[in-house]
Amino acid sequence: MAKIADQYLLIHPWKIIEDGFHPDHSEVSESLFSLANEHQGVRGYFEEGYSGNQLIGVYLNGIYEEKFTESTSYKGISNRLAFMVNTVNWLYTRIELDGETLDLAKSKFTSFSRELDFRSGEYKREFVWETASGKKLRLVFLRLLSMEHKELACQQIRLTPLNFSGKVNLTSGLDFSVPHRMYGQNFWNCPRRAPGMLLGISQSIHQRLFAGMKVKGSTPISALEDEKFTAIHFEVDVQNNQESVIEKTVILQSDRNPQQSLEKAWEKGMTLLQTTDQHYAEVLEANKVYWAAFWAKSDITIEGDPENQQGIRFCIFQMQQTYRGVVPGANIGAKGLTGEAYNGNAFWDTETYCLPFYLFSNPEAAKSLIEFRYKTLPQAMTRAKDLDCAGACFPVATSDGTESCTLWQHASLQFQTTTAVAYAIWHYVIITGDTDFLRSKGIELLVQICRFLASRGQWSAKGKFGFYAVMGPDEFQMMVNNNAYTNYMAKRTFEYTLQVLEGADLSAVGCSPSEISEWCHMAEEMYIPYDPQTGLYEQHEGFFNLPHIDVDSIPMEDFPLYSHWSYDRIYRNDMIKQPDVLMFMFLYNQSFSQAEKLVNYLYYEPRCIHESSLSPSVHSILAEELGRYQEAFDFFRFATRIDLDNYNRNSAEGIHTTSIAAAWMNIVYGFGGMRSDGEVLSISPSIPLQWKSYRFQIVYRGSVIKVEVDKSKVSIQVIEGPVVQLKIFGKLYKLDQRGISVKI
Amino acid sequence: MAKIADQYLLIHPWKIIEDGFHPDHSEVSESLFSLANEHQGVRGYFEEGYSGNQLIGVYLNGIYEEKFTESTSYKGISNRLAFMVNTVNWLYTRIELDGETLDLAKSKFTSFSRELDFRSGEYKREFVWETASGKKLRLVFLRLLSMEHKELACQQIRLTPLNFSGKVNLTSGLDFSVPHRMYGQNFWNCPRRAPGMLLGISQSIHQRLFAGMKVKGSTPISALEDEKFTAIHFEVDVQNNQESVIEKTVILQSDRNPQQSLEKAWEKGMTLLQTTDQHYAEVLEANKVYWAAFWAKSDITIEGDPENQQGIRFCIFQMQQTYRGVVPGANIGAKGLTGEAYNGNAFWDTETYCLPFYLFSNPEAAKSLIEFRYKTLPQAMTRAKDLDCAGACFPVATSDGTESCTLWQHASLQFQTTTAVAYAIWHYVIITGDTDFLRSKGIELLVQICRFLASRGQWSAKGKFGFYAVMGPDEFQMMVNNNAYTNYMAKRTFEYTLQVLEGADLSAVGCSPSEISEWCHMAEEMYIPYDPQTGLYEQHEGFFNLPHIDVDSIPMEDFPLYSHWSYDRIYRNDMIKQPDVLMFMFLYNQSFSQAEKLVNYLYYEPRCIHESSLSPSVHSILAEELGRYQEAFDFFRFATRIDLDNYNRNSAEGIHTTSIAAAWMNIVYGFGGMRSDGEVLSISPSIPLQWKSYRFQIVYRGSVIKVEVDKSKVSIQVIEGPVVQLKIFGKLYKLDQRGISVKI
Question: Tell me: the pLDDT tens digits for A73-105?
Fold first, then answer.
């Protein structure tokens, strides 16, 4: 996996810092310096206007639009694309001095730096502007999203003249006319408007978004208005070597209900704007308190590896910004709230890669993710019908529960979301013990999922059950039969459901005994392609007979293959994009022996080109377990700094949420050796050669557990909460606040 | 195969006749009553205007437009659609009497009948119009396309008042504003116009089409003009019980060259129009002479089966109308020149299904079809590059040699056109002995085809060569490995090419010895999935393990499956749309034993749902060979009358050119037992129970051979030309004009 770092930010344990402006990386920086609080997100763009490359992106969780692609006449092929839509540029600012408008693509400036602090969520940018007329003005731009009041966003601009006194023209506004870049158009109308306030209505879904601002620090001169725009113009009196401060407080209040009356939407926003009177400094203070509490519970420290220390904290910070379970019905987009790529849709990544982070830091948030699927069960049942099946088929990509992937070969053939929902229920329940959820919503989901699987699968001539014409998670093998991942996950789904249904009142859940015995038979006779001679699972029937390609022989300039190879060429050989077999060996880790894992790792790893950012972490975790430490570390490094080092050269489009979630797993599951796929949590840490020590914390059964690993030992301790049982290196311990140390 | 006839035309050995108007079938009739002369085609629509369902369709061979579908970012996925474009309504007529405009959807009329005569290509329609004012006017509409002067089209209208004398208003025009129905728009501009003349330029390809008319029989009153329209208005003086005749002579002269100057295109058309002075009766006479000569060479007679007698003559007549080798660069669209379906594109059907008819009636026309591929070799080489391959890949669907199939799963995975071109060369050369063609163009095509196959195929781990991620002709198994048809055809293509190259000057054809030895190795090690225990060829690797579906259990209302089933559902089982294995057993018939054919027929026939109209004929021919006479006859009946009985309920879209070509094969190869896949032509006839006798004629090695079969014997005789050698029931004969009779 020859990925090359493209590093331009400074290393710091708690910050990302850009020292001097890197215009070639300006959109990458926009992604990296993004702020979010789950409700809203804003890219790190230059608010004063910038004529260079720029994606002014402000996204709200659950605010999406829809688009219909050219229709095909075939049933089950979805032609509706839902996408998280770009909203209002609430940071809109223009600054003019001596008739010159500030624009870092054109203006002369020095001493540029910017940083984002993970301990406050504050993004600060500063530089000295030198006008053509010779004036020097020091500018500091600060912004914050409140973690406490999710609708609240703050901006502060500090102006300090270094060689003059006079007037600076400053315009501060709200702009709903920003285009959605990917579709080259703006999707908003503003039926109500007042100075400093706009009510936006999205054009296809008709969701409401109120944006209102208060600007303090100078006297307004005039108001500006346009169809989708409102602003106030100031002449700021600045005195030489004195700092003037302009503060803008913004409310972004969304209402997803397209039936909501405009009057009411407007009033709710207005009221919130009027009653919000925090100053920037207060919001900053509150944010610091919030993040301190968070880090106390969820920090990971690494001694002896500043790059990965920064990397993993960036990952954790971004995870928490993206999703934390405070917005009802929220999910996690593939780019979080930092860009338009993947249309802001959620994938199976949520259950498979992101869920563990929340399970072990914020179980309520984890539960809300599963509840997203419960709420969208009706859409999943409609989708199953579209595919001529029963039960519920969960979408490959979605914003609102409907299938939003318009490539039929993915949407109609991939079922990993559906089995991932069942896996998530199981995982959530064994970790939290929340059987109430299981008995209420979980069981209903499981039954509908099994119904789908039973109707989509088929019996072979040889009397084995399996799935035909499918695509596994590995998207480089398109339409195959008996994909090992699909079949194995379906088998486990049937088995778990049957176990849950044991002794349950079948009529209450609407199951017939014959249905149960059918599922039982399907689970027993599920075909998992396997060669007992070699111990190899076959990724799908016929995989072992495919022509072999040496993936290392593919020239670097051919990557990404989707952009350089004929589309079908990808499917002509035994190359894989991500490892289906290793994936289920990770998910049900303790069901497989070390020997089985090793032989399969050795076979599949060299065939994997990791064109998916989901792939390296799973390899890293298994490599560590198999004692292949250097490989494990290399894969880890890639996942942890995928965005900071722009490994895939596409971080400009937004951060790789799944990969950063997986980076967390890399430390906790990989080096920490945690295994959560059993009745008892188990930990078997090792430590990378490069590190002196590392520490992580997890929330488990109501306790916060600290795990510290150094070269000689692991120390595990409950730092908050009751005694918990867990296995360390396979041995069962009762753990309390005194802690335990075990040699490694 | 439960297909049900929908018969409403009368049976006649040389005509199709509609007695009384069937408005529910009006568009089916338009297709069936189509006229064509290869250069131009016109549907049997009502020229006087009709407010019921109507597709005014006038198509010219090689006159097409292009359209780009929503682009995908993947290489090798074609997003350009070329389509034969609807052109000018040259039959435009309006008739008014006492202020009432004739419209068979609204007017009162009696004694309607129409017929199309295969011996003249004349289409005649007549009825008596009764106006609201009580007048009765007998109308006869005649039309003809000249087989001699391909640009010439004629219309005649006869008016006979039955109870009055007076004036009938008649308008006769040329109308370029007709929309192309499938894309709901008109694709023409008319930069030059004069009374009775228009020069059309197609909007995307910019081909030129001159349309000019002369109308005789009455005195013009006024001219009408519009942007894309020209017409002349007449007041026809009609006398009670006397026939008045209006004659319209039209020139449709096309110029495919988009660079052609408008001036020149106009002049060429004008000149042709001015110098054309034939009357309708003269053109009719010439057409009768043409068709008499044609039938003398190419007729098939059946005694004892009037329905199929009519059916097969209709098929032969339509084949000859559609294509006869007089228009340079012409090919055969899936609907001929009778409708817009399949975009008028040519498919592998040309080489595989249509070519034999021409090989045995008009070898020069057969050669022209192969030359179409030769002319489009550059496009096929570009296409191969798009697919990351070498050599030439011929398109699945095409108007101009570029790939015009925008469904990637077909365009990128199906290679039956490419191997069909090689097969066609081989077939043409063994039948005609035209080694000049082989040595000039054939060899160049073969080399580029082999290059493509060598680069697209791959070596398996087991050291066998084959094709991965492909779709065979059977489109119900989408992305498979080692499709038996693809592999077998590739093997034979390599073998034939190597045989042709034997002793040739390799450097002259640009081949290296290592390339030759590579092809040799590939041919030898080609993997043809086969089970020696059962004698079954496996359609592709893994086919035998697919879940079985009883195709007879699928409810009738589910058909066509593409419209009623979830798209991917079609691919989940062992159902096939058409028989790949039986197909290559038909093409290389003498390479397989009867026993092999039988076991494979018995296995694949029950799995085939014949959703392709290509399928029944191949089954019929093999069934006859295997002594399964009733099955053979049932399949034959379907192919022969597919349009006359509207079996697929879609003849309104145009005739099924491939199926009607296959109907000819059904008689000649099926009942006639002709085999042309060997060095010597071989004939082993049988006769269906229902028939008294039948007779067909073929052109072979410069001779016309008549084959007559009755219940007891086959009589074969050269009726024109030199002595020929052929096998009858496996025994070699020298055949001359005295003929031979053999007992059957």
Answer: 789 998 899 999 999 999 999 999 999 999 999
Contacts of A408 in chain B (CB under 8 A): 567-568
Tens-place pLDDT, residues A532-577: 999 999 999 999 999 999 999 999 889 889 999 999 999 999 999 9
How far is residue B136's CA from residue B74's CA, in Å, rounded to a whole number?
Answer: 64
Q: Which two tokens stand for residue B90?
A: 């040259």
Residue A640: HSE in the Cβ half-sphere, 13 Å Cα cutoff: 25
DSSP 3-state of B93: strand
- What is the residue whose two structure tokens read 């500063």? A126
B149 phi/psi in degrees, rounded to 5: -110, 95
Helix (H, G, I), strand (E, B) or coil at A735: strand
* Edge-first strand listing for the sheet containing A40-42: A35-36, A40-42, A58-60
Q: At A294, is the pLDDT very low, low, confident or very high (cuts 50, 70, 90)? A: very high
In this predicted structure, the answer to whether residue A1 has a pLDDT above a threshold of 80 is no
Q: Which residue of B has its CA nearest to A455?
A: B569
Query: What is the pLDDT at residue B434?
Result: 96
- Of B307, B321, B266, the residue nearest B119 (C-alpha): B321
Residues of chain B with pLDDT under 50: none
User: pLDDT value at position B272?
Assistant: 97
Residue A100 is among the residues annotated as catalytic for this protein:
no
Test mutation, A387, A408, A567, A653, chain B, max B CBs within 10 A: A567
Residues 37-76 of chain B with CB under 8 A from chain A are 69-70, 73-76
Please give the structure tokens belonging to residue A109. Answer: 């400036």
Quote the pTM value.
0.94
Distance (Å, whole) CA B251 – CA B273 = 6
The residues in A 211-230 lying below 8 A from B, measured between CB atoms, are none
- Give the tens place of pLDDT for each residue, B157-197: 999 999 999 999 999 999 999 999 999 999 999 999 999 99
Measure the CA–CA gap between B662 and B568, rounded to whole angstroms: 30
Residue B303: CB atoms within 10 A of its CB come to 12
Contacting A residues, span 452-471, partner chain B, CB-CB under 8 Å:
458-462, 468-469
Strands A188-194 and A166-175: unpaired
Cis preceding-peptide flag for A378 (omega within 30 of 0)? no
pLDDT at residue A450 tops 80:
yes
Pairing of strands B58-60, A166-175: unpaired
Q: Is there a contact between A429 and A438 (Cβ–Cβ < 8 Å)?
A: yes
Kindly state the percentage of chain A with pLDDT values over 70: 99
Q: What's at A498, amino acid-wise?
A: L
Name the band, by pLDDT with cuts 50, 70 and 90, for residue A2: low
What per-residue string of b and e applies to B715-733 under the rule 16 or more CB within 10 Å gives b?
ebbbeeeeebebebeeeeb
Give me the pLDDT at residue B2, please: 60
**3-state DSSP of B685-718:** CCCCCCCCEEEEEEEECCEEEEEEEECCEEEEEE
ipTM: 0.91
Cβ(A527)–Cβ(A466) below 8 Å: yes
Alpha helices in B612-677 (DSSP H): 615-625, 629-640, 657-665
**CB A690, CB A633: distance < 8 Å:** yes
Answer yes or no: are the C-beta atoms of A459 and A484 closer than 8 Å.
no
Q: Do A562 and B413 touch (CB under 8 A)?
A: no
Going from the C-alpha of B304 to that of each of A66, B308, B390, B686, the distances in angstroms are 63, 9, 54, 15
- Chains A and B form CB pairs within 8 A to the count of 122
Average pLDDT over residues A378-382: 98
Residue burial B70-89, b: 16+ Cβ < 10 Å; e: rest: eeeebbbbbeebbbbbbbbb
Tell me the residue type at B650.
N
Q: Which listed residue (A403, A475, A605, A611) is catalytic?
A: A475
**What's the token pair of residue B482?**
């080692």
